[in-house]
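Translate sequence into structure tokens.
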Amino acid sequence: MDTRQQLVNVLNLESQAIAQAAKLIGDSAEAAVDLLLRCEGRVIVSGMGKMGCIARKATATFCSTGTPAIFLHPAEAAHGDLGILSDKDVLLLISNSGETREVLELLPYAARMNVNTIAITANQNSSLAKQCDASIETGVTQEADTIAVAPTNSTTVSLAICDALAVALMGQRGFTREQFAIFHPGGHLGRKLLIKVSDVMRSADELPVVSVKSTLAQAIQAISSKHLGAAFAVNENQTLAGVLTDGDLRRIIESSAADMASIINNEIESMITSDPKTTGADRFAAEALLTMETSGITILPVVDGGKRLEGAVHLHDLVRAGLA
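Result follows.
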């Protein structure tokens, strides 16, 4: 077998192992999510060897998605580190065999502390699975390496299950992009998600603002002069009355091609979109982008609580900010 085929085989075997694990998700997995949701403390994640590496990654994923978690090395636990465990915590234990001695030794202490326990294991008849309050079966019967002993399928599936738990908790808690950004202030993604509309919006002289009583000719001139692809029609008190976009102009011209001269001096009040999508200056720019994507638009007027026009944010502004 050549090298490329070996690589493909391992990837196929590991993807098949994850697919098999998905078929085994049942009541016990739902019970595990419920235990994690009701946890008033932290999720203490533990595993030995390669599963310890998976436990560390799971801890990081839980923390970054709104579930406070700590990694506990099972061998160090018996030498004082058990002190991090409290009766408000949930203990998540990962062991392919379900018979890892160092992991099993955590169970008596958890029982004395009345700590809820969750197992992730391939063996539902193992000591670990039988003694935990909930057990999630991985379904792994063989590893993906050439001699079927190196942790490959087992670690991949365990990691995927931990990811699934974290994502399920996100969904149950309504975890938002903004919360994710708060937990990632030092990362590129976090910095992007923390950008506010006020950081990228156009304002003052940059805005193509016209009176709602302006003529179509005046609106076209405003659109052309500010290069935003729209004009914002305001009332006398500067509240937003509506928006006239390039697309609106095309439709008007197409429907009035034979009589354009008669409408060029008409007021735009009847031509504007009078209830446009808007955003606020204090909103996250990522929210503005989501509104644009779901509404199929490229510009959003920025208004205050009284609907007074404060600015506008264009899709190009969000692109330059690295959000799109």
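Note: The mean pLDDT is 91.
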